[in-house]
């Protein structure tokens, strides 16, 4: 674990599932989870890697993506502080099916498979959390297919930003999001320039404000319903 145990306890307390665990189960997690620093642009894991850990973002910003046969990068999701991922691959005991890359300097927690399986065997609360998280992730991926195939770039940016505020997948998100326009382009599958145009439109609709180094969400429900909400 990190050398500062009190700091580690505080960080784990911010994750949704940690507060559901019995004290002895949380103690096991604290004893067995390790943290690693991943620099911006570095790989947390690669497609095809063996899956030995469940992983969580302690601080920073990650994207989950893959390279299509024609060489196009397809972004599936992003993870902010408090988000955990990789449970599907652990449950199926299959190789990693995607890359996870740090979009900025990030600290990642690695829970060993043995610890993950212990929680599955001994914690009803942990199982209930995973069921909800898997359901939320499935809904997100179905939405992303819709965004990519059916929505214009402005609506895609709005919906992708809204998806970052899912309480199960990114529980630590605040309405002030430190994210660059380049990063918004990554998660929305648009260019930085096109993301900038979309943000200007969303700002005019009073759904968000563009700040130095990030954005502030003013109307989360409006982002989720855009463009219908903006035209109402």
Spatial strand order of the main sheet: 1-8-3-6
Order of helix and strand elements from N to C terminus: HHEEEEEEHEEHHHEHHEEHH
Q: How many β strands by DSSP?
A: 11
Could you say what the CATH topology of the largest domain is called? Jelly Rolls
Shape: globular
Number of domain modules? 2
- Helix percent reads 40-55%
Largest sheet: 4 strands, antiparallel
What structural class results from the helix and strand content?
Answer: alpha+beta
What is the terminal-to-terminal distance?
51 Å
Q: How is this structure best described in words?
A:
With 232 residues, the protein is α+β, with helices and mostly antiparallel strands. It folds into 2 domains: 5-144, Sandwich (Jelly Rolls), CATH 2.60.120; 151-231, Arc Repressor Mutant, subunit A, CATH 1.10.10.10. The protein is built from 10 helices and 11 strands. The protein has helices at residues 5-13, 23-32, 87-92, 113-122, 124-150, 153-163, 181-188, 192-204, 220-225, 228-231; strands at residues 34-38, 43-45, 53-59, 61-67, 73-80, 84-85, 99-102, 106-112, 176-177, 208-211, 214-217. The chain has a 4-stranded antiparallel beta sheet with strand order 1-8-3-6. The protein has a 4-stranded antiparallel beta sheet with strand order 2-7-4-5. A hairpin with a 2-residue loop joins strand 10 (208-211) and strand 11. The protein starts with a helix and ends with a helix. The model is unreliable at 1-5 (pLDDT under 50).
